[in-house]
Amino acid sequence: MSGQTQRLNVVPTVTMLGVMKARLVGATRGHALLKKKSDALTVQFRQILKKIVSTKESMGEIMKSSSFALTEAKYVAGENIKHIVLENVQNASLKVRSKQENIAGVKLPKFEYFTESETKHDLTGLAKGGQQVQLCRAAYVKTIEVLVELASLQTSFLTLDEAIKTTNRRVNALENVVKPRLENTINYIKGELDELEREDFFRLKKIQGYKKRELERQMASAQQYAVEKLAEEVSLKKGIPLDSAHNLLSAGTERDEDIIF
């Protein structure tokens, strides 16, 4: 169905015209707000995309340095360094919590790490390689920080992508379906109201013409009746036939006062 023929099935009245105009105003405002929301989400989406690219580029270097630090720690402290570290760890020192960030009405999940308790690693590798073990730990802490940041960015990226698609679908629906349909409905109602107004005007003109002709007929009848009455009076006064009285009145040779009196 073309855009010109799409309209709502409504009764063409003045009240419905007001309702359709109000709905069109609401749809226009909603379209503008959703368009602004889509633009804001798109800007935030591109910023997050840039951060993801840069974080992934740095992630390779960080993972390489942390793996190299682990290799150095094993080389210096020995292969059994894993069991020594596990013995000194009771609880996780780094934990991750989530919160929400509001961007143009869209709640984006955001992850951040925090330190709950400090793990005692001072005695780890005391016999040999203690400094290398601490460097390895610092490298992996840095890796965890980058991983948490990357996870937060990736989750926000997917959430924003879905929100932008939904918002754009609504914007396109308002722009290409709802607003044209309301505009066509308003034009249809206006056309029907104009046609009704022309019909009423034509009807009034016909009634006025009929009343005018009826009034002229009544006036002609009254005038004819007056002439008949006057002719009868002239016929009685003058003692002439009725036809002669009519001829006398038609000729107008005497005034009515003279004829009557």
UniProtKB/TrEMBL annotation:
The keyword Ion transport applies. Belongs to the V-ATPase D subunit family. This is V-type proton ATPase subunit D-like. InterPro entries: V_ATPase_D. It comes from the Eukaryota. Signal peptide: none annotated. Keywords: Coiled coil, Ion transport, Transport.
